[in-house]
From TrEMBL:
Keywords: ATP-binding, Isomerase, Lyase, Metal-binding, Multifunctional enzyme, NAD, NADP, Nucleotide-binding, Potassium
Enzyme Commission number(s): 4.2.1.136, 5.1.99.6
Cofactor note: Binds 1 potassium ion per subunit.
Domain named YjeF N-terminal: residues: 10-211
Name of this chain's protein: Bifunctional NAD(P)H-hydrate repair enzyme
Ranges of residues in domain YjeF C-terminal: 216-468
Cited InterPro entries: Carbohydrate_kinase_pred_CS (IPR017953), CARKD (IPR000631), Nnr (IPR030677), Ribokinase-like (IPR029056), YjeF_N_dom (IPR004443), YjeF_N_dom_sf (IPR036652)
Species name: Kribbella alba
PROSITE patterns, per database record: YJEF_C_1 (PS01049), YJEF_C_3 (PS51383), YJEF_N (PS51385)
Amino acid sequence: MRHAHTVEQVRAAEADLMAKLPEGTLMQRAATGLAVAISNFLGYTYGARVVLLVGSGDNGGDALYAGQKLARRGAEVTAVLLSDKAHRAGVAALVAAGGRAGSPEEVGSVAAIAAADVVVDGIVGIGGRPGLKPEALATVKVATDHQVPIVAVDMPSGVDVDTGETPAEHVQATLTVTFGTHKICHFVDPAAAACGPVHLVDIGLELPPAPVASLQAADIRDLYPVPRGESDKYSRGVLGLMAGSSQYPGAAVIATSGALAGPIGMLRYVGPGKVADAVRAAHPEIVAGEGRVQAWAIGSGLGDELDIGKVRELLDAEEPALLDADGLKVLDESGDHTDVLITPHAGELSRLLGVERGVVEAERLRHAREAAERFDVTVLLKGSTTVIATPDGQVRVNTNATAWLATAGAGDVLAGLCGSLLAAGLTPLDAGSVGAYLHAAAARLAAADGPATAMQVAGKVAEATRLLLRRDHGDPR
Ligand SMILES: NC(=O)C1=CN([C@@H]2O[C@H](COP(=O)(O)OP(=O)(O)OC[C@H]3O[C@@H](n4cnc5c(N)ncnc54)[C@H](O)[C@@H]3O)[C@@H](O)[C@H]2O)[C@@H](O)CC1
Ligand SMILES: [K+]
């Protein structure tokens, strides 16, 4: 599990550690990790042309000391000081190591950036607010126009660190080097998309529990409900799936494909006779009609045939339930729904919350949290990064998606798969986050050679699961 902490938590942990260490130690640790990461990124140091964009705080200090270390190893380092309050000792250290530092005019920033092999963004870090100054933005634009890669120090300057929001122009990094722990902007879009790969440098911080986490491959191994010797088809989990309509029969076929690719032992399909025939033609192992189930997945492609009374009844029943697509229409703010997982995309969540879709997309974490609290459900907000929020305030973010997943029916596969995990006994939080991870991993396999359909994604879930459950090479569990 990767963890992301808030700025307040990081500052407190830094203060605790700094009190025990000689002054400047933490910055030296950060700068050393940053310099190594820049060297590794470039593949060489001697003769490399490095331009540092330096703001007024310690983020610029990190950049300056990393520049000093690179200059000592033969890099040609120029620091563009964007504030007259730039870290003094850092500037002196860089200059003593042979680097140059000065205002944009003094160092000829346009020519230097245009000719650089890498630009280091030390404009602002965790002390930054969105809304960079025009002078800073102008230097960033030169780098972008000349396609010079940008390594961001801690985070791309201009993003909102604790929310992942990007209300104003910001740096688009090629690589981000962060310190001590991940920050929320590294996980949550749109800011996460501005980070590039994120490299974490350990500086020895001791941190409290994190408000936001992100599953990794090893977590799938720990959480996936692998059948045991004594398991039978009932104990593995039976899912009831209510999806599809005469209007959208395909949604039922796709959602059942997703469900069967999950861990359940049996799938019961509930829907119109003709659709049930299509579903059984695609998957003869499906049982049509109601019966005992351990969880329900309701909603994909119900269209106008949504039976609101019936769905409410299932929601109020004891079994956990997943609500997707048209099924979301029955959700209200009354009742205890803590065992309900909803899987809206931004448009559906915007309708539930009565706000514009663009607002949900811009403030994904905030709206996922708000809906979880308001409707007392676990919310899985689909998107390039998927945010899963519980009513008690836990958040997980899935960052392994591929843009190829933006295809019709992919949401139906996800609903079936997450429903399957719910029926196998996972909590809504685990079912949502494990399902989203496997779904994205399957999409990566399906789209390895180009575009893939939702059915092809469903067809790769088993392989993705098998690969992820392997404890070591060649030893499937
Ligand atoms: N404190 C420490 O010992 C450590 C700090 N670290 C680095 O220090 C950074 C935090 O340093 P600071 O607390 O000095 O904060 P920043 O370097 O993020 O800068 C804050 C300064 O920028 C100004 N500012 C805020 N928003 C701005 C904007 N939009 N445009 C221009 N100026 C803006 C503020 O007024 C403040 O003076 C971390 O991100 C990390 O890079 C690391 O070296 C780890 C150890
Ligand atoms: K930065």
